[in-house]
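Project standup — Tuesday

K.O.: blocked on the structure for the chain from last sprint. Re-posting the sequence here as requested.
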Amino acid sequence: MEAIKEIPYGMSNFTDVIEQNRYYVDKTMYLPLLEDQANYLIFIRPRRFGKSLFLDMLRSYYDLSRKDDFQKLFGDLWIGKHPTPLQGKYQILYLDFSKIGGSIDELSKRFDAYSAVQLDEFLNRYREYYDDEFIARFLSAEKGLDKLHMLDARARRLGYPLYLIIDEYDNFTNVVLNEQGNEIYHAITHASGFYRDAFKNYKGMFDRIFMTGVSPVTLDDLTSGFNIGWNISTSPFFNGMLGFSEEDVRTMLRYYQEKGKLQGDVEEMIQEMKPWYDNYCFAEESLDHEPKMFNCDMVLYYLRNRIQLGKSPKQMIDPNTKTDYSKMKKLIQLDRLDGNRKGVLRKITEEGKILTNLFPSFSADELTKPEIFPSLLFYYGMLTIIGTRGNLIVLGIPNNNVRKQYYEYLLEDYQKHEHINLVDVEILFNDMAFDGDWRPALDFIARAYKDNSSVRSSIEGERNIQGFFTAYLSINAYYLTMPEVELNHGFCDMFLMPDLQRYPEVEHSYILELKYLPKEKFEAQAEEQWDAAVQQIHGYAEGEKVRQLCRETRLHCIVMQFCGWELARMEEV
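H.V.: unblocked you, prediction finished:
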């Protein structure tokens, strides 16, 4: 009887996944498509999307030293039945630039030292193809650059094709850019900078290059005027190359269910995961006819919890991704945003989308431009393609996992200026969810809004209030906070959808309508505005969609009216 495959959570070594009988979602059908592209390729995806595992699969397939392992590693996969002529034809140099770190003064030395170690490892793997005299001379050379030149000359003379695979090509340069600033970054990526020099050498000596990273910034600076054909990140042919499709997820869940390891309804599990992990689209042309992609690491995290504990994880967001969020905050310099980029971020957080151009690449000098900012967020997985309008792209927040990150940013920003005890708020949310006692919680947030001088002194209005409420309501575990959700031909300010799959005991759901008037207009317009709000919220509540989302819970329609920054009236209507 065949042993049940283990879950490959956190694994990036393809050989280990296959040999240790781990579940592998087959992506080998993309190999012939990659061969049909340019010989030098860059592929950008957010963190936790399976880039390292894919690269290792690529390496195992083309590696001359693994040629005889083809059947063992790939026999059960798509490519095992459809091998290409290039299988096992290359000597492969594999570099992972996330391994390079240290102080800026040491960076060029560390880069060279790392390259030297990897080149020695390369030669040991392929030593049968080189004579003893060359091997001795190669190993005695101290500098990575010298070894690279020696290898280039000898492999070229002997006719050996070379393949360079680079994981996280932009890792340490992104860190330099963030921590040391533009000047130091320029020094290593422009003119005679060591990193730019390295790429000049690579381009000349390798038959094929495949690189992955999380941002196209470094690429633009390293290869100014590079052939756009290099960058296949937004090509429709490769939209599904990383991540899982819904069918991938379904097949995997059914496998574990059939093996008796997974209990429960598969379709219900998918419906539970979709709002949290799904909805990534990386190519405009894929919008209408290809499935949206799930974050694969998140799916494996969920599945592991389901199998080990027999239930969904208490936190739908993998706690291990906290470090990713911290890295991303650094990279997009969330703590140093100017007014324009802050405005972009708030707009996205409050409306869930933005109309923009999607830039395929941009230099570090352009990072501070507000028009570039949405593209940067797209590459980091904070936005995804959700539509088009004329020649512009609509980028939207893909799922709740990412939405939480935006709210976290807002929260941090608000908490900097006026600290609120979040545990106190959570206790009030309990009463809101289980007892329908909503007033204390909403009063608490309204008072916090009034007390937060940074908010008060900025632009007043519904958007401003809505952003504040959304941020604090987002820490409520029992609801998915949905701003600007379309209900019955209109957009309500906020819908608190009960998370009944995880908390079936929740008995209450909420639609909030937030209205604002400046102090000088309040007396004259308040009554009319209130009546209109009541009519609006009743219209939303009557829609079929609301009934579906609320299920058996009692729906509360609450109108809140602000006079300037102060709550003037709040009622259930």
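K.O.: great, moving the ticket to review. Residues 519-541 form the longest helix (23 residues). The chain has 25 helices and twelve strands.
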